[in-house]
Amino acid sequence: MKERVTYILSRVLELVITLLIVSLLTFAAFSIIPGDTASVLLGINASPAQLEALREKLGLNDPLWYRYLSWLKGAFTGDLGDSTAFGKPVAELIVSRLPVTFGLSFLSLILVLVISYPSAVISSGKPGKFWDQFFSVIGHVSFAIPPFVLSLISILVTSKIFGYFGVGKYVEPSKDFFGYVYCLLLPAFCVAVPKIAMAFKFLRASILTEKNNDYVRTSKSRGLSNIKIMFRHILPNSNVSAITALSIILSDLLGGSLIVEQVFNLPGLGRLLLQAIGRRDFPLISGIVFYLAAMMVIVYFLADILMNLCDPRLRKNGGNI
Amino acid sequence: MPKKKISPYYIVGGAFLAVIIIACILSLLGVGPSPLKTNSADKLLPPSASHLMGTDNMGRDLFARVLSASKYTLLISVAGVSVALVLGTIAGMLAGYFGGIWDRIIMLLGNSIMCFPGILLALMAVAVWGPSLFNVIWALGLVFAPTFARVYRTEVIKIKERDYILNAKILGVKPLRIIAVHIFPNAFTQIIPAVVIGLANMTLSESAMSYIGLGVQPPKASYGKILSDAQSYISTAPWLIIFPSLMLVIYILGLYFISEGIRGDR
After folding, report:
1. Which of A89-93, A304-308, B89-93 has the lowest mean pLDDT?
2. A29 → closest Cβ in B125, B208, B242
3. Among the listed residues B196, B230, B251, the one whose alpha carbon sits nearest the alpha carbon of residue B62
4. What is the mean pLDDT of residues A159-166?
5. pTM for this predicted structure
6. Considering only A1-15, A95-109, B126-140, B251-265, which range has the smallest mean pLDDT?
7. Are B66 and B247 in contact (CB under 8 A)?
8. Beta partners for residue B74, in sequence order
9. Cα A159 to Cα B261: distance, rounded to the nearest angstrom
10. Residues B15, B263: contact at Cβ < 8 Å?
11. Are A305 and A8 in contact (CB under 8 A)?
């Protein structure tokens, strides 16, 4: 018990430090820019007096550490000020775009799980045989297709064969939930495909390693069926090591969603980020980047803790088996 | 000893890579029409003998543009991975060899960089510093550095316990010399698969950045940019999507096959 508490405390400390470094990286990027926000906002024709007034208003004349601390406070209280391009609070803009980006990432995560698990189980059943080779070849190829290229190709194919698949249309979840899922399905699939291959590869390898363990041979000699051994013994053990892999996959899915949104014209965070970049709206860019990264920091933290609860061996050796 | 059979992964992967490298060489030699020359009479022509891959909406020859794009794809992936490799090597060696507080600081920094999903950190860097070939290379290099640092750190920790390192220490060899002369060459062979995969991932990131307009800037051609320009003509001129996609996938797949081959040899 004591072990567990010290472990969790050290992880929490690490979480806080990581969040601080992430915030520092985000903030630093915008403080070392050539030319400051005021001159970007006012353009090249601004008079020095105007520039000075705006700098004062935005707090750009304060010392750097003070600006960082007030930005950090804003970030943690959800108040990052107003977007310079849209004139609305940054937090409000971000929240309004969440259903698209999170919906897309979540849907693609479901697709990854639903497709990679069965194929890995089938594939590892008889390694080297037809189905294993079949899934492995498909895995290699889908690993190599960038999600945005797959999106373009799927738009091309679906528009040629099926006419129209709701490309470019977005339905609010509050209006029509099934319509919402339907319009995100194809984009989610495009985001998921390379990660399905990654999850498949990982699960297949970890199932094959588990199979070599003595307890599997013992269970077999006790007369347990292969299916029972797989679901009762092998899969639960593989799941523990899959937790970390899945958290990394989630991060990639999120990153992929930001790009694929652009191809399918979905009004998500990716589009907002690009608009913000195009109009050099630094409060909004830093807000989006920081919150997404902070979310991943927390996901990795939770994955670590979860894995630890499942596998006590990890606690003794400081996180390594 | 019987001669070892070369894995089919190497053959297929090598053939795929050869396609891109030949395309790059042809582009450097200036073979065929100029990738920049516009011709309003030849807009959106399908593939034919005079335009092998057809033409785009400005009447530019797609074949020439695809050749030219392969040049930038190769350049960015190799240069970006080199940046990442240099940063990652230094960080990973220091963390692995000295351990303790160095290890803690470097790994925390690396983990923090890895927490930014996908290419978000590179996008932010390019947003701030402006999109240019140089900025894309160092931004992606920074994003990929922690991956290499991790591999190096693990290797160095393994190697530094070996007898010959201990002997060198006893003989009074300075730590930097031990790292440079004894550890680095031994760890380097272990990092080669990571480098090959890194090239592929770098290309994936660069093409996505170019697609959303924050990577290679026009008039330079890149697969991502060609594809984003082609999107408006997706139903009328599908060849504008098909050929650049194919080239991009061939390059990445070639790299993956080579890395599979290396893995199989071990």
Report:
1. A304-308
2. B125
3. B230
4. 66
5. 0.87
6. A1-15
7. yes
8. none
9. 38
10. no
11. yes
Q: A277 and B118 in contact by Cβ < 8 A?
A: no
CA atoms of A49 and A63, how far apart (whole Å)? 20
Q: Is residue A305's pLDDT more than 70?
A: yes
pLDDT at A22: 92
Which of chain A's residues have a Cβ under 8 Å away from the Cβ of B214? 274, 277
Q: Domain tally for chain B? A: 1
- Write out the residue range of the structural domain in which residue B140 sits: 76-215
Q: What is the pLDDT of residues A226-241, one digit of tens each?
A: 888 888 888 888 888 7
ipTM for the complex shown:
0.88
CB contact under 8 A, B117 and A22: no
Domains for chain A: give ranges and CATH numbers: 98-267 (1.10.3720.10)
Residue B30 is assigned to a structural domain of this protein: no
Interface with chain A: mutation pick from B112, B143, B228, highest number of A CBs within 10 Å:
B112
The predicted model gives B63-74 an average pLDDT of 90
d(Cα A12, Cα A7) in Å, to the nearest integer? 9
Find, in chain B, the residue whose alpha carbon is nearest to that of A160: B235
Chain B residues lying within 8 Å of A285, measured CB to CB: 124, 127
pLDDT at A174: 77
CB contacts < 8 A, A to B, total 130
Closest-approach residue (CA) in chain A for B253: A144
**Do the domain assignments include residue B54?**
no
Task: Report residue A296 as tokens.
Answer: 């991943």
- Residue B34 burial (CB count, 10 A): 12
In angstroms and rounded to an integer, the radius of gyration of the C-alpha atoms of chain A is 24
Q: Angle at CA A205, nearest 5°, toward A200 and A208? A: 120
pLDDT digits (tens, 9 = 90+) for B228-245: 988 888 878 888 889 999
Pairwise CB contact (< 8 Å): B127 & A254: no
A266 contacts chain B (CB < 8 A):
no
Question: Which chain A residues are within 8 Å of B260, Cβ to Cβ?
Answer: 140
Cβ distance A149 to B115 less than 8 Å, yes or no, reads no
Query: What is the Cα–Cα distance from A85 to A278, expressed in whole angstroms?
Result: 10
* A289 neighbourhood in chain B, CB within 8 Å: 116, 120-121, 123-124
Handedness of CA A277, A282, A283, A287 (dihedral sign): positive
Report pLDDT digits (tens) over A259-282: 999 888 889 999 999 998 888 888
Which chain B residues contact residue A276 at CB under 8 A? 127
Per cent of chain B over pLDDT 90 is: 39
pLDDT of residue B2: 57
Q: State both tokens at B129.
A: 């510093």
